[in-house]
Specification:
It contains five helices and seven strands. The protein has 178 residues and is α+β, with helices and mostly antiparallel strands. It folds into two domains: 98 residues, L1 transposable element, RRM domain (Alpha-Beta Plaits); 50 residues, no CATH class. The strands form two sheets. Strands 2-3-1-4 form a four-stranded antiparallel sheet. Strands 5-6-7 form a three-stranded antiparallel sheet, with helices on one face. The longest helix has 22 residues. The protein is globular, with a radius of gyration of 19 Å. The two termini are 35 Å apart. The relative contact order is 0.15. InterPro entries: FP_C (IPR057251). It comes from Plutella xylostella (Diamondback moth). This is FP protein C-terminal domain-containing protein. Pfam families: Baculo_FP_2nd.
């Protein structure tokens, strides 16, 4: 009996920790593909991106912090992703929508002359949710699902436009993709 209670407690604490890890990222966007150079001004870069997307952004009041983050693979030649934490979640959601509306943003669009690499932005997912997204994408491809996306830091899938949405919040939920 004690072993079962202990296992349930550990599982509950693990779930709580996962939810908290994602919760602290709710106001964050991860931006990939922005060229990197020594001494760069990340606020100026993000402001140029916002201007390109016709989004009103005030770097000194709308952004809580901004940084580049290391990747797991040190040999990766791609620029490190930029994490932007907004003061307000609605501002983050609106900025992310504006970036997605402008299709095919390239480095040259925001002042990096001759850089044609694509820039894209997504919710800043926790390690668990990144794993769930990767697994959901693979399963959707295998099972011929048409849609797999992230909204408000939650992974969602749908077989077609008329089928119900499946919220993938755990490895158990991946089993619903049949």
């Amino acid at each position: 009996m004690f072993g079962h209670t202990l296992k349930k407690t550990v599982a509950d604490l693990t779930d709580d920790n996962s939810r908290n890890e994602q919760w602290v990222r709710k106001s964050n966007i991860q931006i990939n593909g922005v060229p990197q150079k020594y001494g760069e001004n990340l606020i100026a870069i993000i402001t140029r991106l916002a201007d390109h997307c016709h989004f009103p952004l005030k770097g000194d009041t709308d952004i809580d912090f901004i940084t580049r983050v290391a990747t797991k693979n040190d040999n990766d030649k791609r620029p490190k992703p930029i994490i932007v934490k907004f003061q307000a979640r609605y501002k983050k959601d609106d900025f992310l929508a504006a970036i997605r509306k402008v299709k095919g943003i390239k480095g040259s669009d925001i002042g990096f002359v001759g850089v044609e690499d694509r820039i894209y932005a997504n919710d800043h997912l926790s390690a668990k949710n990144r794993y769930l997204l990767q697994q959901a994408k693979a399963k959707c491809k295998d099972k011929n699902y048409a849609f797999c996306w992230v909204r408000n830091c939650t992974v969602m899938v749908r077989r077609n436009e008329k089928s119900p949405i499946i919220h993938v919040t755990s490895t158990e939920a991946l089993k619903k993709i049949t």
